[in-house]
Design goal:
Distance between the termini: 17 Å
Largest sheet: 7 strands, parallel
Structural class: alpha/beta
Strand content: 15-25%
CATH class: Alpha Beta
Bound molecules: 2-amino-2-deoxy-6-O-phosphono-alpha-D-glucopyranose
Oligomer: single chain
Helix content: 25-40%
CATH topology: Rossmann fold
Strand order of the largest sheet: 1-10-9-6-2-3-5
Number of domains: 1
CATH architecture: 3-Layer(aba) Sandwich
């Protein structure tokens, strides 16, 4: 079931999402949070950092698993998702860095890295709350449109649409890696709760098709309709076509 909350704007969306995450951590201080990158969660992380500074949220026992990482970038590269997470959240709160997990884009044996990542999530007891953004083509994590839903962590070829959308974070478009490692839709669906945040008019079509259209691997986020506990927080602009 998908519950939809309309926020006035991106700021309100971020605060509401941060409230749900902080409620999860209050309920279960050692919660496993599934985290996302991209522009969408930046405001949410900023809010969590602010509340942490005020003493309202404690990350000391929290564990995190990130959805995805570019292949060929290591954590010191500013465009890597490990760097992003350190910069926006991990370095600013009292989380134990050993409790933070991002797929290793530099792994020598990528197939093994994928299997190990799935096992890691399982060993942690699964994800309690998975935060997700939404790509323009309906991708979640880096699960791009395709002929079938992919279950576990795997390597993907990024689509031109995703490369174009993410090129803003690189010095040159040619620098955007063509491949990435991502948790599969199965891994995402196994989370106990899923929180999707979307803002902006440019995502309106993806929101409509994902949550009000047929469930199809051509629009990976549409599978979220089959999960029992999804909260979508979207701003007015992103819900414009719904
Ligand atoms: C990237 C990430 C996704 C993210 C999506 C949307 O490709 N791999 O996890 O949700 O883009 O990003 P943004 O929030 O910047 O629009």
């Amino acid at each position: 079931m998908v519950r939809i909350y309309q926020a006035e704007d991106e700021g309100q969306m971020s605060r509401q999402a941060a409230n749900l995450i902080s409620a999860q951590v209050i309920l279960k201080p050692d919660a496993v949070l599934g985290l996302a990158t991209g522009s969408s969660p930046i405001g949410t992380y900023r809010q969590l950092v602010e509340w942490h500074r005020k003493g309202d949220i404690d990350f000391s026992e929290v564990k995190t698993v990130n959805l995805d990482e570019y292949l060929g970038l290591d954590g010191s590269s500013p465009a890597s998702y490990r760097f992003f997470m350190n910069e926006h959240l991990f370095d600013k709160v009292n989380i134990d860095v050993n409790h933070t997990h991002v797929p290793n884009g530099m792994a020598e044996d990528i197939d093994r890295e994928c299997r190990d990542y799935d096992r890691l999530v399982q060993d942690l007891g699964g994800v309690d709350l998975q935060l997700l953004g939404l790509g323009h083509n309906g991708h979640i994590g880096f699960n791009e449109p395709g002929d079938a839903f992919e279950n576990g962590t795997h390597v993907v070829e990024l689509t031109e649409s995703t490369i174009n959308a993410n090129a803003r974070l690189f010095a040159r478009r040619e620098d955007v890696p063509r491949r990435a490692i991502t948790m599969g839709v199965g891994s995402i669906l196994r989370a106990k709760k899923i929180l999707v945040i979307v803002s902006g008019e440019d995502k309106a079509r993806a929101v409509r098709d994902a949550f009000f259209g047929p469930v199809t691997p051509q629009l990976p986020a549409s599978i979220l309709q089959l999960h029992r506990d999804v909260v979508l927080i979207a701003d007015r602009a992103a819900l414009r076509l719904c």
